[in-house]
UniProtKB/TrEMBL annotation:
Ranges of residues in domain AprE-like long alpha-helical hairpin: 167-351
Record PANTHER family: POLYSACCHARIDE EXPORT PROTEIN GFCE-RELATED (PTHR33619)
PROSITE patterns: PROKAR_LIPOPROTEIN
InterPro entries per the UniProt record, alphabetical: HH_AprE-like, Poly_export, Poly_export_N
Name under which the protein is recorded: Polysaccharide export outer membrane protein
Presence of the UniProt keyword Metal-binding in the record: no
Keywords from the named record: Coiled coil, Signal
Coiled coil: 225-354
Gene Ontology MF terms in the entry: polysaccharide transmembrane transporter activity
Length: 431
């Protein structure tokens, strides 16, 4: 009897704090990830931390395996005590060298929760991640342990971040205006008119840069126009020269044809004289040679005339292609530039929405909105999502997602609202 009282006193002394904590968690159901404290009073070799495995079981240094998942700590301890109450274990060796054995008393079995499954914080907190759980913990307390709410997490200098975003925004606006001017210049080339930059959206762009872009586009317009005109003139000059050569060769061709006829008549006359014996063979040979030479010259001239004709056709075709090819190139450039303008407009919209992150109320934490709390919790074999608040009491294994400024983030921002206006509290220029 005295031994039982002694063991009970020891158990109470060893587990006083644990029992006080467990008194508030009698209904807690053990799950994989929990870690238990196991001990037998008077047997330090059996003292150890025992994790609940993925299949919901635990394995003790004495007694073997037990089912823990889905059960309370009292239910599990009852099973352990029932199995160990008739057990004994070697306690040492007596003076005669014999092994001594101790009996496991129910009062000497200590089993409690050492560590509950951690909770997990994510989203708009300074240091998201796992946290140790304690009963009664609220979302507000868990967020405080995580360093508090923050839309910027580990960013050290919000002013530099805002300045960098403003610089990026200004750069995109500048590229947007430049691309629009290029598109206006190409359209003017296609229409055969002077470029009109009055409809280009230049809000938020340095006026000096606007003038520079406009001057460059006009200069390129004039240069391309002059290049095409010069190309036309060169081709026209080539056509004129080819036509002059063609006219000369045509006249030469007619002259050679007449000469060929004359030499052929002379050859027939010499042949007739030779049959009558009135001339020599040498004269016949000279006449034949003359016919051959003039015929060769006539063929060469005809070939050159044909070549000049082909050259004229190609030159006239090139003259027609100066404008058609330029139009095709301009259409392709206009298509590419239009895509660029569209992409830049989308980028401006994205950066305009991003500017909300650097509005004064968000940088200083002066907003009136409350954080949105979404808790994912395991209930039996399934997970459920719970809409919580800062005072919601957490349970082991909960995953908490914190979102700040959800209403502000959902609000659309006009594509042309400037980042500087948002950060300085001034109205953005209309686009």
């Amino acid at each position: 009897m005295r031994k039982s009282v002694f063991l009970a006193s020891c158990a109470a002394a060893i587990t006083g704090l644990a029992c006080a904590s467990l008194a508030r968690a009698q209904d807690y159901q053990l799950e994989p990830g929990d870690i238990l404290d196991f001990a037998i009073v008077g047997a330090p070799n059996f003292t150890q931390k025992v994790p609940v495995s993925s299949d919901g079981s635990i394995r003790l240094p004495i007694g073997g395996q037990f089912r823990a998942g889905g059960r309370s700590i009292d239910e599990l301890r009852g099973d352990v005590v029932d199995k160990l109450k008739t057990s004994s274990y070697p306690a040492g060796v007596d003076a005669q060298g014999n092994t001594t054995w101790n009996v496991v008393y129910p009062e000497g079995v200590i089993l409690g929760v050492a560590e509950y499954r951690p909770i997990y914080l994510s989203g708009d907190v300074l240091t998201p991640g796992a946290q140790s759980f304690r009963f009664g913990m609220t979302v507000r307390q868990a967020a405080a342990v995580a360093g508090g709410y923050s839309m910027f997490r580990n960013r050290q200098d919000y002013t530099l971040e805002a300045a960098g975003s403003e610089e990026e925004y200004r750069g995109v606006l500048t590229q947007f205006a430049k691309a629009q001017m290029k598109a206006a210049r190409i359209q003017a080339e296609l229409d055969g008119t002077q470029p009109d930059f009055s409809k280009v959206d230049i809000a938020g762009v340095d006026p000096a840069m606007v003038k520079q872009f406009e001057a460059l586009e006009r200069q390129q317009f004039d240069s391309r126009l002059a290049d095409r005109q010069k190309e036309r003139e060169n081709i026209a000059e080539g056509i004129k020269n080819a036509e002059a050569r063609y006219s000369y060769l045509e006249q030469s061709k007619r002259n050679l044809e007449n000469e060929t006829k004359n030499y052929e008549e002379e050859l027939r006359r010499v042949e007739e004289l030779l049959r009558k014996g009135l001339t020599q063979v040498a004269r016949l040979n000279d006449a034949q040679r003359a016919v051959f030479l003039v015929a060769t010259r006539s063929l060469e001239t005809s070939a050159e005339v044909a070549r000049i004709e082909r050259e004229l056709v190609e030159l006239k075709r090139s003259l027609e292609k100066v404008d058609t090819q330029s139009g095709m190139d301009n259409l392709s450039d206009l298509q590419d530039t239009t895509i660029t303008v569209s992409n830049l407009r989308a980028q401006i919209e994205k950066l305009s929405r991003r500017q909300q992150l650097f509005a004064p109320s968000l940088l200083t934490g002066a907003g009136n909105g409350k954080p949105r709390i979404a808790i994912t919790r395991r209930e039996g074999d399934r997970y459920v999502q719970i809409d919580g608040n800062e005072d919601t009491i957490l349970q082991p294994g909960d995953t908490v997602e914190v979102s700040l400024g959800s209403a502000d983030r959902a609000a659309a921002v006009a594509p042309g609202e400037g980042l500087a206006a948002a950060t300085m509290g001034e109205p953005a220029p209309a686009r």
